[in-house]
Amino acid sequence: MKKIALIEDKYPRQRKFLEQNNINLDKYCNILENFIEEKASNILENISNDSFDLHEFDIIVCHKSVENNTVILGNLKDYCKKHQKTLVLFSGGISVNYYDNSEFELLELNSKTFYSQNLLLFLKSIKTNNEDIMMLCYGEQWKQNIVANVLEKTNLFIFDIKNGFENTANFQIDANLSKIDYKFYEPKEKIFDEIVQFKESLEKYFTLELLQENTTQSVVIHHDNVCDLQIFNYPIKFIQSSDDIDTYISKEIINELKNKEFDTIFIKDNLTSNYLELYGLRVAYHIRLSSELADKRFTPIVIISDFDENTLNRFTQEANILFTDGVYLCKNTKEDIKKYQSLELKSVTDYDKFINSIEITPPKDTSGSHNIANKWSIYKWAELLDVKSEAIYKNKCEIENELYFKYIKAKYLKNINNSLEITKPTKKGNVLLIDDEWDRGWADILGAALIKGGLEFDTFEYDFKDKSNYNLIVQLNHKELKKQVEKSDVIVLDLRLLESDHENEDVDSYTGIKILQKIHEINAGIQVIMLTATSKSTILEKLYEKKILGYIKKEHPEDKSIDTIENINKFINLVDKGLEKKYLKEIWKIQQNILLNENLSDDISLEIKSIFEILDSNMENKFNFVVLTFTKIFESLSKIYIDENTMQYIDDGKDVGVYDSFNNSINSYTNQKWHKNTQNRLHNIVYDKLNIKDEKSHKYICQIINCRNYLAHPNEKKPVGCRLIKSPNHQHILNWFEIIENILNTSQNMSN
Description:
This protein is α/β, with parallel strands linked by helices. It is built from 30 helices and 20 strands.
C-alpha cells in the first residue's frame, strides 16, 4: 500500500477546504502523513537545505507557492526523479492541469481541485490498491480520461499511417489499460487492421452499450403514455385526484419523489387526456421550486415529448423551463430515452440563475395583488410570530403547495434578517381589528402579537364578501359594532374591504375611509392604524390627510422595501403610540359634552374646540399650549361674571372676596394685587356663584394658573397655594379638563 506525504504551509486554507467537502484526513493516517504548521515549517526548511529524506513515501504532495519555492521545488523534483517518486504540486494560481511522466510522474493542479471529493476518491482507492494519480484531476472520470488519451493518440497514429508518415511497427500503447474494468481488443500483431480493431474497442468503451451497464437510477412521471416503462427504475403514474393541480403535485408527486433515490427525472410533457395542458412542464417547475426536496430539486430533468422545443414554446409559456440549465428534451422512443439514461447529465449548479431566468404568473383565481399580499403577509407574519391556527394552516398549505408561491418563496425569501428581535407592546388598552381577511389569519396573527403584551384584542367578525357599500354602512350603524368601536382605544382598519374598492383609485370612496369617518364621528380620539396592500405612493400619501395614526403595508412579495420583522415592529410600535394617546378619547368626550352647552360664549366655544385639535396634533409642547388655552377660558369666564374695574359681580354688585387656599374659604377683600388676578376671580366665581366648594376643584384651578404663570415667566418667584407643575402630562390635562367641564356645565345649569 502506497504512502503519501502532504506538505501544506497554509493550514487555515486546508482546514477550510476539508470542512467544505466533509473530508477527514485522520481516517487515512495509515497512508497519509499531513505536514502542517510546525511540521510543515521543519520539513520545508530541510528540503530547502537539501537535507531531507522522504524514502517511506511513494507520493509527495506539496503546496507549489511555498516560501523559497524555487529552491524547494527544484530539490523536490530532483529527489523524485532520483528515487522515482510521484510528485503532486497544487496552488490556487494553477488554472490548467499539467501531467508529465517523461522522467517521473509529475502532476500540477488547482488547490480547489486537489482538496475536493477527488482527493477522497484517491485515498479510498489507495487503500484498495486501485489508485491512479489522475483521479486527483478527474475524479470518477479518471478512467474515461485514460481511454480518451489513448484513443486520441491511436487516431493520430492511424492518420499518419494513411498518409505515409508512420510505420505500423512503431505502434505502442503508452498507458496502463489494465486498471480499467473493461476488455479492450489486444492487437495480435502490429498491422493496420489490428490497430483499427483496437481503436474500435476504445470507441466502444464510450458507446451506449457500455454506458448502459452503468445506467443512472431514473424516475419517470407518466400517464401510461411513455413508450416503455420497463426501462425506468421508478415509474410514478400521474392521476389527478382533485381540481387543484398544484395541491395534487405537491402532496402526491413531490412527496413520492422525497422518498426515492435517483439520478435523473424523466417527465412526459402531457399527463392528462388533453395534450395541450402539458402538466408535465408544471411538474418540472414544482420539482425545481419545492424546497422540501432539498438537493433533489437540482436533479437533471428530461422532458419526454412528441414535439420539439419551439413547438412546445408556442403551446405554453411554461415551456421556457426547457431553456434552463439541467433540463433536457428527448423523443418518446426507447432509443432516445436510453441515450439520455446513459449520458452524464448536468444538474443545476447556479440556482439563483435559474430563479432569475423564469417567471411564474399568479393563478387565475387569485384576485390581484391585494389577495397575493394578504396571503404572503399572513404566511410571513405567522411564521415569524409562531402563530398556529386552522386559518393559518390553510393559508400555509396554499403558500407551500401553490406553484406561484413556491416561486416567490424561492425568489424573495433568500435573505432573511434574523438579527432583529420582535418587540412586544408595552402599553395597556383595547385594540379592535376591522379587516375583510380577519378569518384568513389576520385576527389570529395580530391577536397573538398583542395579547402577549397583555392587551385586550377584539375582531369585527363580519362577512364582507359580496357586500355593497350601503349594506356595510348599515352594519356600521348597528349597536353591536358601535359598542365595539366605543370600547376600543386603537382600531386596526383595512383600507379596502370590498371587492368594489379595487376597481378605482379614489381614496375617498374606499370602504375603509368611510368606516374611518364613522369612527371619528363616534369618537375622534380613537386612534386608527390603517392596513393596506397598496404600494402606490399617491394613495399612501393621501392616507395621512385622513387623520390616521399611521399605516402598515401588507407586503407584496415583490416589494423589496419591506422587511417583515421591521414591519411587525412598526405595527407594534404604532399600537403602543396609539395607546399612549388613548386619553384623547376622554378629551373628545369632555369636549363634545361641553359643546352641547347652548349658552357657551363664542370665545369659550372656540377655545374648547381647539383643545382636542392641539392634543391630537404632532406639535411640540402641546400640553403647554393647552394650559394656555385653559387660562384663556378662565379669563373669558371671569368677564362673564365679574366687572374687572369695580371687582364686583355683574349680576348683584357684590364685592369679590379673596380665596384662602389653606382653609378653602372666601374672605373679604384685603389685598388689591391678589384680589384682581385671574386665579382669585375664578376661585370666587366657582365658590360663590357656582357653589363648587370641594378642595380638589380649587386645587386644580390653582395648578392650572400657576403652571401657566411658570410657563410664561419661569424665572419669577415660585407661586404659593398649591404644588407647582412645571411639565404637565396627559393625566394633568385630563384632570384639569374635567374640572373645566364641571365648571362650564354648572354655569350652564345655573343660567337655565
